[in-house]
Amino acid sequence: MRFLFIAQGPSHVQWQIPLAWAAQLAGHEVLVATRSYCVDQVTRAGLPAVALGDEERIAALSQQVKDELFAQVGRRVAAEGGSVFVPNETEMLIAGGRKMVAIAEGMADDAVALVRAWRPSLVVHDTGALVGIVAAEVAGVPSFGQIWGATGDGIFDVADEHIHPYFAPLFEKFGAKIPSAAPVWIDPTVPSMRSPLPIERIDIRYTPYSGPGVVPDWLWREQRGPRVCLTSGISVDDGSLWNDTVQQTVVDTLLRRGCEVVLAVKNADHPAVRQLPDGIRVMESFPLNVLLPTCAAVIHHGGTGTGTTSLALGVPQLVLAHHPMHRQWGTQVAAAGAGLLVRTDAEADVEAVTAATLAVVDDPDLREKAAGIAAEIARMPTPATVVEVLAEVASARSTSAPN
Predict the structure, then answer these.
(1) CA-CA distance, 338 to 332, in Å (whole number)?
(2) Best CA proximity match to 199, nearest among 156, 232, 241, 240
């Protein structure tokens, strides 16, 4: 069979790599389609890639969504007689869905041309690559969404009332029917942390993958204190972790505690990185799934890639979250007892930040809960098992299709 994977951004691609490799190792043909700036990420993983989308058009369409969001917020604030020009969480969620549609629109011409030429047996798309649903309908094959991170709000399909008026025309453009059945989601979220969404799921074990890297010899040597990883993931600017009192408090607290602090960044030449105090190791573009097993804790911005990797490896986490989606992740982790959340969208209590930083390193309850979730993840179906399920569905669809 031919498995077509479609991912829309760098933090999305890495979720699809283990499943794509499982399909390839099972003897299927595999192709990973993504935006041009993510192609290297796929080929470094040893998989064939194809670039989709007009980046200038995607940028223009995304900017239009942003402009309309600001205009909507302005009207609401004026009507309320307020003075704080900040989108609320509902407005952010709807704008996020519309942005995903804008990205799909910018990728659609290439995606449809690809499926018409390559003729996949099925399509697996991430939550941000809604174009995969369109491409699958054009090809007449099953599509499966692949959730990246915890299942909360932010899973969209054509039935969503907020995006239907913008998404439906894409199907009409290519002469495809709007899907009548609810989508099926491949879900790596452990059952104990799932939001109660009424969706059909195929469970999959999260397999941490953060790309290739050369392991330095110091990583396995005896540590001079508890090792703590600080990171803002691969989708956030490397300076964002060091731009206010909160982050400086975290660094100072860890150094006073005697921790070995490791900063994992995309760009070690970032001005904020060069201004770090002595005693901090900096690792550039290094796989977190190799670093984190040596760490007592991880402190990050709330990205689900970093967060789920931490859970799978049983590492307690402190989430310093500003964005609503990142706060959602931190809330779920804290509710599960595997970590802590400090909101950074408002003025934070330095004493609370200090206490949370020390707790994530030293609290045995957090470590025990994190280990328990790691064990729960390990019991979930492997990517190889999920490939068999997907192949069976595609086979059944093929044999039942009219000649």
Answers:
(1) 9
(2) 156
3-class SS of residue 263:
strand
Q: What is the pLDDT of residues 187-203, one digit of tens each?
A: 999 989 987 777 889 99
> Which pairs count as long-range contacts for 349-358, CB under 8 Å and 24+ apart, including other chains?
350/245, 350/246, 350/249, 353/246, 353/249, 353/250, 353/253, 354/249, 354/253, 356/318, 357/249, 357/250, 357/253, 357/254, 357/257, 357/299, 357/318, 358/253, 358/257
- For the whole model, what pTM was predicted? 0.89
Q: How far apart are CA 141 and CA 158, in angstroms?
A: 17
Rounded CA-CA distance 246/349 in Å is 8
Residue found under tokens 């996020």:
96
- The 8-class DSSP code of residue 129 comes to -
pLDDT-wise least confident of 25-29, 215-219, 264-268 = 264-268
pLDDT tens-place string over residues 244-283: 677 788 889 999 999 999 999 876 666 666 666 777 888 8
**What 8-state DSSP symbol labels residue 44?**
T
Q: Which is nearest to 389 in space by CA: 193, 127, 184, 206? A: 184
Joined together, the tokens standing for residue 110 give 């290439």
Q: Which DSSP helix (H) or strand (E) runs through 135?
A: helix 131-139
pLDDT value of position 235:
45
Whole-number Å distance between alpha carbons of 128 and 8: 6
